[in-house]
């Protein structure tokens, strides 16, 4: 489910950039301890060198090829394939460095000031229901076998008599989004069919407040679903299941969704998909045995929760439907094939990717077209920007402010906006570089699995996780930074990341690299699939030495420890 979080918007407006490492002067830790084997990185501008053997990180010499001073980006990454493995280190620099000042004041590429995003979705409510689904249904082997058989048996030829007509009244169950077991905690509501499209059936709860959507508004919602969202999501993720044999998806507007948000809350539950609806009633009493979304309904007088205008609800649900439809497709594909449930970080990353891909379809951009903030900030309304693009940008900003704290593969994807932003950016980067120009084929393969998590990503990219992170982690900083001769591997091919991230951070790029001067030590911790970023100056007089060591001065002990070194100038 997706929830709009207004508290985070205020925090974004007021926040300043911060990092997840600190520079501490006069520490006793020194690089190149006795017996260390030196690795030399002699680089032209735009040159990159990865040190991937943790035992070789304690002694690295940085030098320029032209006898001039230079500025180097040092990325202390963690390429561990297991989630949430934390590593602690000291990054120490020695030797006189007349270029340190230059590193500290290095001019950044100009960033365009653009309108901030209109809101950001909290992941807490969605994480709660996804966790409940796993606990109640997906970890129950018997229920999973029954669901697999049910989907295989049910999905088939569409029966015309299964498609209701406009004006028909249906009885539908609404799971309690806040319950510990929504299969057992639900209400039974009556709903009227408002419009029937090619792919969607819009129904509204008979208890919905007056003054809500008009017939024309319902038709507009159905048209967008039929013509934009359904084609984009099915092209990129696969076909939905069809357990009720009607060839349609229900969009159910019910004030029970409104009521799930407490009055005065900073977050708004806008809608959700519940996997229980794809199970038989014998496994989940709530099941409607239909493909169905539960959506917020307009409430002009605040009868069920805070006031919700027709215009705000119409706008807010657009990205929600794109996001939740991926979850529906993903669940149906994996249940029908008997594949295990996808890892939360990858499932959520795919749904956030769905928002972007639908937004590109709305604005007639291709999947691979390189976009700047001016392309997607559709002045003056910002409607598509806020519905499909701004959320991902804002979530990635949260990751960039503390890039070492939680990685893209973290188990905290249930509750962390930063993890979801990192997961989206990792998928976007992977699709750019390993999708062979066919983003839809790449994302469909991820949904199909049958692998999950990192193993799924590795299988689809055809390379190692080490190789993917060696490109992605530096690219978060170097992409579109006007670095001469930088290989394409260290850039995003589909977005100008500096322009979009500056747009949601008051015009300033949020990923800040700390300068580490001679004789100083930067102490940090870094999670799996995450990194911390540093600038180190190299004087014209010769190389300098640096080393990543354990806090006690010995070799680093976490196996995912990596250094990615880029000469910036």
Task: Write the topology of this structure.
Blueprint: E1 2-5, H1 6-14, E2 21-25, E3 39-43, E4 48-51, E5 60-64, E6 70-78, E7 87-94, H2 100-104, E8 120-122, H3 124-138, H4 141-154, E9 169-175, E10 186-196, E11 200-205, H5 215-237, E12 249-253, H6 255-259, E13 267-273, E14 292-295, H7 310-337, H8 344-362, H9 373-376, H10 383-401, H11 417-434, H12 439-448, H13 453-461, H14 465-478, H15 497-503, E15 514-515, E16 520-526, E17 530-538, E18 544-549, E19 561-567
Parallel strand pairs: 3-5, 11-12, 12-14, 15-17
Antiparallel strand pairs: 1-8, 1-13, 2-16, 4-19, 5-18, 6-17, 6-19, 7-16, 7-18, 9-10, 10-11, 13-14
Q: If you had to describe this structure to a student in words, what would you say it looks like?
A:
The protein is of the alpha+beta class and 569 residues long. Helix content is 35%, strand content 20%. It has 15 helices and 19 strands. It has helices at residues 6-14, 100-104, 124-138, 141-154, 215-237, 255-259, 310-337, 344-362, 373-376, 383-401, 417-434, 439-448, 453-461, 465-478, 497-503; strands spanning 2-5, 21-25, 39-43, 48-51, 60-64, 70-78, 87-94, 120-122, 169-175, 186-196, 200-205, 249-253, 267-273, 292-295, 514-515, 520-526, 530-538, 544-549, 561-567. The strands form three sheets. It has an eight-stranded mixed β-sheet. It has a six-stranded mixed β-sheet with strand order 2-16-7-18-5-3, with no helix packed on it. Strands 4-19-6-17-15 form a five-stranded mixed β-sheet. Residues 4-19, 23-27, 97-102 and 104-122 have low confidence and may be disordered.
């Amino acid at each position: 489910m997706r929830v709009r979080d207004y508290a985070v918007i205020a925090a974004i407006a007021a926040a300043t950039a911060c990092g997840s490492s600190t520079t501490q002067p006069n520490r006793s830790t020194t690089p190149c301890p006795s017996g260390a084997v030196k690795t030399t990185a002699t680089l032209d501008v735009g040159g990159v060198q990865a040190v991937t053997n943790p035992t070789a990180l304690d002694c690295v010499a940085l030098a320029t090829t032209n006898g001039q001073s230079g500025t180097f980006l040092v990325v202390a990454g963690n390429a561990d394939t297991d989630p949430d493995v934390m590593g602690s280190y000291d990054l120490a620099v020695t030797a006189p460095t007349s270029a340190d000042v230059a590193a500290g004041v290095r001019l950044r590429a100009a960033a365009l000031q653009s309108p901030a995003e209109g809101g950001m979705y909290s992941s807490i409510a969605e994480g709660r229901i996804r966790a409940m689904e796993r606990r109640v249904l997906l970890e129950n082997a018997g229920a999973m076998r029954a669901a697999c058989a049910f989907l295989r048996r049910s999905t088939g030829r569409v029966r015309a008599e299964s498609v209701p007509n406009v004006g028909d009244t249906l009885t539908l169950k609404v799971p309690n989004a806040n319950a510990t077991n929504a299969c057992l905690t639900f209400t039974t509501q009556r709903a009227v069919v408002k419009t029937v499209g090619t792919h969607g059936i819009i129904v509204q709860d008979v208890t919905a407040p007056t003054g809500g959507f008009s017939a024309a508004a319902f038709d507009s919602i159905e048209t967008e679903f039929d013509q934009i969202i359904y084609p984009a999501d099915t092209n990129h993720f696969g076909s939905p299941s069809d357990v009720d044999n009607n060839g349609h998806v229900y969009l159910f507007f019910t004030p029970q969704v409104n009521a799930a948000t407490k009055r005065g809350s900073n977050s708004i539950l806008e809608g959700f998909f519940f996997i229980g609806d794809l199970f038989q009633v014998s496994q989940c009493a709530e099941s409607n045995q239909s493909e169905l979304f539960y959506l917020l309904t307009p409430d002009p007088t605040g009868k069920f929760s805070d006031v919700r205008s027709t215009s705000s609800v119409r706008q807010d649900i657009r990205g929600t439907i794109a996001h939740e439809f991926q979850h529906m497709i993903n669940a149906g594909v994996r249940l029908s094939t008997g594949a295990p449930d996808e890892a939360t970080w990858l499932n959520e990353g795919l749904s956030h990717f769905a928002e972007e891909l639908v937004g590109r379809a709305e604005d007639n951009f291709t999947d691979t077209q390189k976009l700047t903030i001016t392309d997607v900030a559709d002045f003056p309304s910002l409607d598509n920007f806020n519905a499909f693009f701004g959320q991902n940008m804002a979530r990635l900003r949260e990751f960039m402010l503390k890039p070492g704290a939680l990685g893209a593969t973290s188990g905290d994807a249930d509750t962390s906006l930063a993890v979801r932003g990192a997961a989206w950016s990792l998928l976007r980067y992977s699709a750019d570089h390993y999708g062979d120009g066919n983003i839809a084929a790449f994302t469909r393969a991820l949904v199909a699995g049958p692998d999950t998590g990192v193993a799924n990503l590795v299988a689809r990219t055809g390379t190692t996780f080490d190789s993917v992170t060696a490109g992605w982690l530096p690219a978060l900083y170097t992409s579109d930074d006007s670095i001469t001769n930088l290989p394409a591997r260290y850039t995003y091919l589909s977005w100008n990341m500096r322009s979009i991230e500056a747009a949601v951070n008051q015009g300033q790029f949020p990923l800040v690299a700390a300068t580490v001067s001679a004789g100083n030590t930067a102490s940090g911790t870094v999670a799996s699939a995450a990194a911390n970023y540093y600038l180190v100056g190299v004087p014209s007089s010769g190389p300098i030495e640096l080393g990543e060591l354990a806090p006690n001065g010995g070799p680093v002990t976490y196996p995912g420890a990596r250094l990615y070194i880029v000469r910036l100038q």
